[in-house]
Each structure stands twice: as structure tokens, then as C-alpha cells.
């Protein structure tokens, strides 16, 4: 088993027009395992645009990695994936007992998010409660010229920041999340480009 590993989880690009369809379609959900700077694995699944199975799909990817890798922490790019599909970091930690660090690249305007959710989702209260709870616990962090907010579940603030500083040495965001973002975005653009033909 590989030790001292981390897993970044991000979603792929999708055409905004798919949010307006009755059957929403899917994009990619990509998990990347690094140990700590070597890319060891890429795990790929799909996720429904504006669906509600994001946490289940995230758990599946992480669980598939665990037999081979000792995962020290999981990195999430916020809690909304594929539009407003929710990945709940509290549930991931409670089930797998692996620390989860959620990165917020930008400050959230919670009032605008709530208004958008109310307009489009009957279950807006649930989705909003997770977004608000995780974001409210976030801390601001500066590393060189980059700035973001993060919420750590299962790790102390000092330990989380030590890990973030180590894995943001060459990139704006933690390395496994950076690779997951680039991989998922490329796959998503390839997928939706094929629909245009």
C-alpha cells in the first residue's frame, strides 16, 4: 500500500444548456490520488447535473482508492458539483473517518445562492443547509500570491494549514485537486464537444 497519499475530487465541464433540460445529463467526476507529488491513480465516474447523488459518487471513488492507498485527506472543490449537486464533506468524514478539506476558491454570496436554489429546487433547504454549514466554518488562507477559504473536517486548523502549504507549493490550490480539476475539465469538454457534431 502507498503511504502519505491525498485524493482530490473535482467535476468536469458541462454545457449550461443541459441545466434547462428535463433530463439533465451528466458530466465527469474525477478523483486523483497523489503520494504526495507523484500521481498514482485517476478514478473516473459520472455525476448528474443538478442531481443529488454527489456524496454517494464521491464515497464510491474514495472507497475504490482505499485498498491501494493510505489517504491522509480528501480535497473537495467546494460542496456543489455539476451545478448544484451536493457533496457533503461531513458525511464523507463520518462514514470513512478520513479528514476532508473543502476549498472555496471565491467568497460565496449565501443570499444569492439561497435565492437561486429556491427558484429551481423543491429540496432547496437541504442543499442550502450543507452549503451554508460548510462555508460558515471556513477560514481564509493566504499562500504567496494566492488566497482562498477552506473548511477542515477531521483535522485541526494548524494541521490542515500545514498540509495546504505543503501541497500548494507550486500551484494555487492543493496539487491533487489541481490535477483533478484539469483532468475533469478536459474530459468534460471532450464529452460535450462530441454533442456539437
From TrEMBL:
Q: Which domain of life is it from?
A: Archaea
User: Coiled-coil annotation: which residues?
Assistant: none
> What parts of the sequence cross the membrane?
none
The protein's matches in Pfam families, at most eight in alphabetical order, are given as:
Endo_dU
**What family does the database annotate?**
Belongs to the UPF0215 family.
- Entry's HAMAP family? UPF0215
In Swiss-Prot or TrEMBL terms, this protein is called: UPF0215 protein ENO26_02005
Q: Which organism is it from?
A: Ignisphaera aggregans
Amino acid at each position: 500500500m502507498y503511504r502519505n497519499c491525498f485524493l482530490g475530487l473535482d467535476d468536469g465541464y458541462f454545457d449550461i444548456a443541459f441545466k434547462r433540460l428535463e433530463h439533465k445529463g451528466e458530466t465527469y467526476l474525477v478523483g486523483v490520488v497523489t503520494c504526495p507529488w507523484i500521481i498514482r491513480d485517476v478514478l473516473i465516474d459520472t455525476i448528474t447535473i443538478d442531481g443529488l447523488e454527489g456524496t454517494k459518487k464521491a464515497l464510491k471513488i474514495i472507497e475504490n482508492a482505499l485498498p491501494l492507498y493510505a489517504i491522509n485527506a480528501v480535497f473537495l472543490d467546494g460542496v456543489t458539483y455539476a451545478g448544484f449537486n451536493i457533496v457533503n464533506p461531513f458525511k464523507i468524514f463520518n462514514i470513512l473517518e478520513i479528514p476532508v478539506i473543502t476549498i472555496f476558491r471565491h467568497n460565496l454570496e449565501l443570499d444569492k445562492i439561497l435565492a437561486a436554489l429556491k427558484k429551481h429546487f423543491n429540496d432547496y433547504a437541504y442543499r442550502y443547509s450543507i452549503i451554508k454549514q460548510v462555508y460558515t466554518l471556513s477560514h481564509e488562507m493566504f499562500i504567496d500570491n494566492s488566497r482562498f477559504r477552506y473548511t477542515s473536517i477531521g483535522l485541526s486548523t494548524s494541521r490542515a494549514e500545514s498540509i495546504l502549504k505543503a501541497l500548494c507549493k507550486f500551484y494555487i490550490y492543493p496539487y491533487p485537486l489541481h490535477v483533478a480539476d484539469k483532468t475533469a475539465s478536459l474530459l468534460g469538454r471532450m464529452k460535450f464537444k462530441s454533442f456539437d457534431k
